[in-house]
């Protein structure tokens, strides 16, 4: 079941990276980029939180602890958006102070993390199947 | 579009910078085609990308000789050339201070120089003493000869050249040369005693000359030759020995003015082919060519925006009028066109010329032209003012350029007066801040001039439009980090220019890979190819570009106006449009709630509109509309044919709709009567309203709906916190926290409603300008978003009331007049490009950043300034110059698509000392202010304040550790940064950043908005106002502007210690003028200037100076009106007495003083020193 939820998060991250790099290369404008991305922020947060909680429920302590910081970071990011901003990705700010780059970097790191987790889950799933 | 056929994958419209970016689809298109700069390195990257000086001389020479052929002795010209070239290198490399070391020579130089100055001051004497026996006559002559033999300083060298050439060529009588020379020395000798030569007071050139030209024409026989001679000397000096010669002029602009003069002389003399003058002419012409050497000597090179060059056609026209005199004129006109507009306009205007004898014709325009030059010159810093890195200044010589270049230059003398003969550039001279108390210059601080070779410097963009914080760009990011100074640009791209070359050409030549517009700093590899100076790609020169409309010649692409001017405007073709250019559309959204009616602003607005209805920029398609709102939204049907305006009320504010879609915005000309009726009726329509709510959000939504088909400008007048419908706000300010020293909250917006709406507006090419006239908290932080992101502007009138607060009412009136009549550009985009290796990472100003380097500006107005921060991504070691280009594409109010391009070129340096030498303290401070605003919104005010202080501490510490020979115990700053701590302290005491003093949140936020959107000149006035003492205005240091004498009192420190009770002081804060009158102020002053018998009878609220007959009154008024002329918003004047309540406003600007919550300047310095030592 972990893998199922991962199937949803993965495309999102890939999508996020593609959109950001589009923006970097000037293919789309900031407004549409940010509205596209902001739409998916909440699903990502929820999805990841659900996975983390599931891990806790199924008593996979190690994986839970691995996931916890990332989930916390996601939630923190979401909560800390200033009241006047239009979501995590704000079109008026994204080009300032290297925000675009930091978003990009963050997305890359997350992608790496999820890739790692994906294989870990795959492994444990196969392990579980074999054990059955 | 340049060569559309040749453009590979990108469609013609890809014109990157320039997408009108209309509706959504178009924006996508723009984005898709826009950037993606695939940089292609030019083949010869290592080479200097611009041929400096020498390389390109040969081609130029061909041109000068062309001129010379017109004049009798061509031989002389070529001879000059040879001489020049022969002596060029030796002179250049001659030891710097040679001239000064030999006393006799030195004095002579001084003498001659002084003579010019003196001569200016006292023209009648010149004539009288012409045959005077004075010693000056002989020594200079002998000196000349010595020099000629030794050829040991540039001065002598040049001079000898001219002499010998005249001898050799035989083209004209020898005595012409001699005639010139004796005149000068005699003059100098005669005048010498009467002038104090430090002359910090700066006798002003313009005045002298006006009076001359007025007094007598006859005198000019001598003066004329004299001026040509004397002028050319310093000029050539600078050309030859930019670094070495110790007593060289420090300004480049002098060179320009010199050229102006020369050309005047030239015209006059050429017309008559007067031998005597011919010397001057030849000589002058020769120098001229040197000056404009590299890219092209011929054609208008205008940094200098005064020139009223409408377009090339106009240029041709005007020069052709001149050319009736002689073909030479034409050429020189073209040559000088850029340099000194007045030169051209005057010479080309037939009025002064025929009436006077030929010799004086040359000088007449000179005197005549100069004053007209002043006004523009004053507000606009001279094109390339002080060369910061000029080695030590010699006072005697230094005055010379100053006189020419006006007040802006005067200040440089202050720096120079300290007689630095060291090898260090002036801007690096260490200044001990704690000991040196008088660091403020006499007059306003000039922008430093990039240390480029003279040709590039002359071509470079005016510092008023384009300034970089570091005029010497560090080579690597590491070096930049070491310097601890921010790297960034300050832009004022849409500034009102009185002259601007406009280019109408079907092909706009641009680089094929990075889309850079061709500019003066590209290099032509051969006739057919040019190398882009931003991405180094080699491009072809299109066929059409080979023809030069200015000279009507073929095969000289490097002489096209695009390549001769760093600020040009193109008329864009339809490739640069995504839709037909929009008409000018204005919509006024007026608050008519009880609060608004009470304040009485409606009368003023309607009155101003009525007065300026015909002056609204626009053409026959101009449309206008009105919306009013309280708790409902009222529309006005102004359809032509109605007998009177029809009001349509929409009370469903939750789902706003337009009652009639087409008749709300009407053609201004067709419905003018109805509009006038409405404006007359509006102020009285709501007098009895009891509605206190304000539904601003719905009204804005309605306005957006109304505007979205066309785009245009929405002007919103709001008087209170919006309390109904979408976008309603709650009061967030806690009055008890106003003077808190700790946390200032709520600097950011409370809701994203206004931001979203602004972005929608921006997408539909609509800008929203906000006028906030409120007495209570209105949450400007949230409301401002509507203007910030739609590229509008914000005006704020705290505690506005029409009768109770006349100052604010007057201010509104004046602001509105400017606002309604100023130039406007619609559906604009601006792109900033820079040399490969640099990148922009943060933008400041009112706009929406649509993609990495594309700013979308729904409207652009001449008072908007922008700032960007840059970083160095790749090391710039393989280039010696970097360039920045802004291209602003807009639709003019006449429905023309235009592109205004500014290009700035700066040198790259590798040493830390050079970086400091090139620091532009005003630009640094303005950029820091912008950064601090961002910081206080995103983090906290305390952080921002700390960051500001740290900026000073870090940079000074870095400087002190770099200059290791300095004692660590003192606080030392390089001369270029000596004002840095003062300005930072001033910033900390600004409303935006101050703590501990009671500041209303809206005031603070407004100050922050100002910092983000004001151009540098205005911002600096706001940060550090100018204080003058005006009760003793004297004639000594005056300038002439349009036949008016304008006194130039020295700047005073902003400290109460300067405010003596006996004096009257004038403070220029940019948007407001204060006159402070001391208790014991001279009664004559009060009587003559203020029109009251004594101090006690001066009223509390005085906002105007009466027109009195006395001289002092005249002087004061001319001084004030001169200051007023220099800025777009005419400021309100306030007279302040000691016990006036407005006194605190005045005193808060005295930033060097201690307040209960903030340091005095000296304490601040000590504090910095402490932190450095830590």
UniProtKB/TrEMBL annotation, chain A:
Q: What Gene Ontology biological process does one annotation of this record name?
A: vesicle-mediated transport
Report keywords, A-Z: Membrane, Transmembrane, Transmembrane helix
- Segments traversing the membrane: 45-68, 111-130
Its main subcellular localisation, reduced to a broad class, is membrane
InterPro entries the record matches:
Cornichon
Q: What do the Gene Ontology cellular component annotations say?
A: membrane
Specify the protein's topology with respect to the membrane.
Answer: Multi-pass membrane protein
Q: Subcellular location, in the record's words?
A: Membrane
Q: The organism sits in which domain of life?
A: Eukaryota
What family does this chain come from, according to its entry?
A: Belongs to the cornichon family.
Q: What is this protein called?
A: Protein cornichon 4
Question: Which organism does this record belong to?
Answer: Opisthocomus hoazin
The organism's taxonomy opens as:
Eukaryota, Metazoa, Chordata, Craniata, Vertebrata
